[in-house]
Amino acid sequence: MQTSPDRHEYPSHWEADVVLRDGGTARVRPITVDDAERLVSFYEQVSDESKYYRFFAPYPRLSAKDVHRFTHHDFVDRVGLAATVGGEFIATVRYDRINADGRPASAPADEAEVAFLVQDAHQGRGVASALLEHIAAVARERDIRRFAAEVLPANSKMIKVFTDAGYQQKRHFEDGVVRLEFDLEPTDRSLAVQRAREQRAEARSVHRLLAPGSVAVIGAGRTPGGVGRSVLTNLRDAGFTGRLHAVNRAVQESELDGVPAYRSIGDIDEPVDLAVVAVPAPYVPEIVAECGEHGVQGLVVVTAGYAESGPDGRERQRELVRQARTYGMRIIGPNAFGVINTSPEVRLNASLAPEMPRPGRIGLFAQSGAIGIALLSRLHRRGGGVTGVTGVSTFVSSGNRADVSGNDVLQYWYDDPDTDVALMYLESIGNPRKFTRLARRTAAAKPLVVVQGARHAATPQGHAVRATRLPHATVSALLRQAGVIRVDTITELVDAGLLLARQPLPAGPRVAILGNSESLGLLTYDACLAEGLRPSPPLDLTTAASADDFRRALTGALADDGCDAVVVTAIPAVGETSVRDAALAEALRAATASAPAKPVLVVHVELGGLAEALSAAASTAPQAAAPAPGAAGSAEPLSPAEPAPTADSDESGSRLIPAYPAAERAVRALAEAVKYAQWRRDAAEPGRVPEFEDVDEKGAAEQIDALLARVEGVEGLTLDAGETRELLGRYGIGVRPALPALTPDDAARAAGDLGYPVALKTTAPHLRHRADLGGVRLDLADEEQLRRAYAELTELFGKPAELRPVVQAMAPRGVDTVVRAVIDPAAGAVLSFGLAGAASELLGDTAHRLIPVTDRDAGSLVRSIRTAPLLFGWRGSAPVDTAALEELMLRVSRLVDDHPEVVAVSLEPVVVAPQGLSALGATVRLDRAPVRDDLGPRTLPVY
Prior knowledge:
- By secondary structure, this protein is α/β, with parallel strands linked by helices.
- Helix content is 34%, strand content 22%.
- The model is unreliable at 1-6, 382-389 and 617-647 (pLDDT under 50).
């Protein structure tokens, strides 16, 4: 690397892995003096036309002077980046800082000339677009604000790279050259372009793993049994539509179970898209290298012995990812259970699941193999939970998720036409900020249901995640804000998924209940109330009800404009047969056809025949040989070659009705659907971030810079009371002054300045904001009362130096609240609200929203805490000024969003009166602005 004294240190933080348009990966890194041979080799592989476009003249080879110029950079005024695959250059970009005359310059010149060169074989993969994002980020870091580029008019591809990037630009034509100039400050459009490209690239990379044209299982044993041989068998038995290969160094035969066998992947004389690696961990690096040399696009590593096994394994895992990305490959795993794609065009079961689930509309993602097995079991077998069944579109078990994560799979599901509902089991979230962004976009198109494991324990050893200071309840609330349906168990995960996959979203919370059991109807009614739904009194059809009675009652309920959903309860009658079960199911399904926009659920008790009939022709249970004649639940095995019916409608196209064995489970799933439907309606009109004319953004920035300059090299700064009031005041946030009172005379003078009545309170850390401990005296009308209160406090709690008493003018009576904002290193900026006091803290009654907060967010924040009725006139009290409270939260949000150096704000208490509010205490903490990776160029995470 470069070490000359006139050059900066090698900027290793500019190194990054990126996903390209076709789903492959490339490494972006600075070019150094060690790259001379690579640069020459790269240039030799570029066509004469591309060279002409780069240099505006025939330029067959680079001179020694050119090589020196293009490999010697100071990483400030001259910077070059290369995109590499397999260690070799596939594209380069460089900038040179220039002055107003276009000559080489140094700072403070803030313009640079930029130029690209992409190997012809890699053009069209989005390499130049990715390099532009990274070189622009580097330039901004080096205080360059504008790029200029000169392009020949015939070079339409490069002109498109610049014009499509979304930056504000100027374009003019002179001397036969198109000159483009554009500012590098990210805009809404440039961020939208960047994220759209990210989505397409990451979705494509997952698609290459889930829909390969050929698969090689490396480590397939010569005898039955073992992980590799099991995966090979599962792929073969599922009827994989592509080409299948077995690889084992010790194999002597030409086939294993009818599958062509080879000693090395290099012996396969055709391309291999996906390799399943099932060899011991020490042999994996050699296998990865062979796969990379053969052009394999992706790996599923089922091998264990990586980060889950300790520090040595974690380093092996990092090296595995680095090695795979060097060759442009992505990895599922290691320690993965595998992947499944039930599409009839693919029929991929590259997993340890012995049976292929039937096709359906639910996508499954699980970080844990054991939970993945449980999810497949719950969805694809009758009994043991939900008795109605549905099918799977794709299944991914990521294991240690060293590379491909839930974020990548969300990118794929977002526009996957075969997936209507996404179910995810997560034990950790590697990038919460990005996950929240992707979840919000996905949830606007299709339901996303998440259960998070390891909520109260350490992150699983195999998972490297960013540290977060937010408790799980806060993360959960932020996910709900993003439209995620958060549940606590895999049973609830499946319950909600079945309803969302089969039934339409409810238009509201009004629920009709009907059935042949009064008791079961009442249980359902109570469950609806407990979940915040609005049930009508149950309609009891009595145990003598026929199938036709159920049909008429359900038809009537669905026709009622005051009903948004129907729960049907059913118990078996004595002597009832399976034929009558089928008749009842058919009656219910016939009734639903009259109102296709309203969801219907069934609660059944020990009525297996009904559940089977409701899910007729949709079983996704693993098929076994037919049982003896007359045995219950007999079914014909499904041949791998047979196309299976879809799971979410029967052959007539009518909807399937989900059945639940308990009222509470059905109602809980319905309640989640109601909340999600409301979120979808709200998301269509997300609100706005208001502008405030009295905000002094420039003055606040200058004050923050000056304050941080005083503590250069120190980690963070907590402002004193005066500095806090000044900074908050610039954003229209007033804080009542509190004057120190170290003696009774000080207290009397302070009260005289402020005016009676006053409050006397301690600010010692152990008594601060704890009025319940007696450290506050209110409504002191005169000096006599003030001195008496001062004596009482010092007698009860200690010396004034320990108590740090202050005097503050009384505020109008109201409800005490707390408003806080914090920048979390993983989740980003978060605004929190709750009522002040020990009770709210003890119950965790605090609501949270991501910053920037819209006016709609602020309104919902006020109303989402359990104690919100106290703000709206509970038990005859006067309603308080919630409009002023919402405006305060919007101003705090604006302050933190405008100035990322403001890493924490706490307003406590904020007394909200019937007219106006008063912030009685405030603290502000500053620190150097944290890196916003969600605003930077696209990169793959490095764990």
